[in-house]
Amino acid sequence: MVDTINTAIRLMCKAHQHGRLGMAADMGMTIDQFHNHLYRKCGSRFFSLDELQQMEDLSRSTYLAEYFANRKGLTLVDVSTVEKVDKVDLYDIELRNKATAGKLAIAKQEAVADGVIDQKELKTLSGLFQQKMRGQIHGFLGFLALYGVGVTEHSVDMFMSNRKAEVGMQIQAQEL
Q1: How far apart are CA 26 and CA 32, in angstroms?
Q2: How many helices and strands in the chain, by DSSP H and E?
């Protein structure tokens, strides 16, 4: 779960092919300049939104988007690949969903073993639950796409709130 902007930056650097040093170099900064921006040292400003988006693009990740979704209590759902799903992919998605559901069930059992769910356990449970929900939605959209319903990034606007369901989904059936 990406719950702070610094966590998002750390994960983007980790996802970058050459790590933090490579990220800094690709952004035209020395590692010291990068750290000054990250930690707001030596009178440096924090990264701009454009720089954060550049990091996300350079790392080929979605950590920044996940941070912003989590900030508003929403779950980010990847719909960019559902148009390319076949039955084998759908089966793999379903297996991953079942594995995540199993991890969540085990985490629930471990969390309640002492009779209290602490902050660390809550964070773990919430992250696994969001991962399970993202997988479920991704699998459902893949299922729709496989059987002729046009689901694209432009026709689907789906987020699920942690507090209440706020699902706005537009599905356009393809003409046969």
Answers
A1: 14
A2: 7, 6
Q: Is the dihedral of CA 151, 152, 157, 159 positive or negative?
A: positive
Q: Classify residue 138 by burial, with Cβ atoms within 10 Å: 0-12, 13-18, 19+.
A: buried
pLDDT value for 171: 37
Low-confidence ranges of the chain (pLDDT < 50): 153-176
Residue 74 sits at φ, ψ, to 5 deg, of: -115, 160
- Residue 25: C-alpha distances to residues 7, 21, 63, 127, 156 (Å): 20, 6, 20, 32, 36
Q: For residue 143, how far is the Cα from the chain centroid?
A: 21
Question: How far apart, in whole angstroms, are the C-alpha atoms of residue 68 and residue 131?
Answer: 16
pLDDT of residue 164: 38
